[in-house]
Each structure stands twice: as structure tokens, then as C-alpha cells.
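Look over this today:
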Amino acid sequence: MSFVRVAELDEIPDGSGKLVEIDNLEVALFRLDGAIYAISNICPHQGGALAEGKVCGEQVLCPWHQWRFNIKDGTSPLSPKLKIKTYPVKQEGDQVLISIS
């Protein structure tokens, strides 16, 4: 698995998101209780940017129509069939790296 540096830890305040792009792929990074998670930035409903959504516990609310997704595993409480892509994350010091492969 190949990891790419995408951000520094201090760029992602706890309880908020940050958009990063890798090879034209939009990924939303979130920091919860010090841990970093990476999910697809695009809401499957109508394409809202999840990195701009409000974080409520372990979920992010799409800023357009409030569809919810778990930041840790990509699942949605709206339907068991609704799930967005998650990406492996690792930290090396203050650096945040993700794998999109």
C-alpha cells in the first residue's frame, strides 16, 4: 500500500474537516479525538462537499441536504446500502498520509 503526504496535523482542527485532492480525487480529512480519518468528499445524493459539513459526534452532515455519514467507516444511518469510500490513514510525526489505492 502506497501512502501520500496530504496535510500536517495542525491543519485539521479537532471536530472539523479539510479537503485535499490527490490525482483529481477529492478526499475529506477529519480529526476526531486526535485521530485522523479520510472519506470521499462527495456526497452521493447530489455531490455536496462533505469536508464543509458539520461534524456531530462521529458523523458528518452534508452541507446541502444533511445526509449523514460516519467519518470512521463511511456508513450512513439513512440506509444500510448507503456507504461512501474510506481511505487508510497514517501519521508520521506531524504529517498526515493517506492511501488511495
Remarks:
- The radius of gyration is 13 Å.
- Residues 4-98 form a domain with the Rieske Iron-sulfur Protein fold (CATH 2.102.10.10).
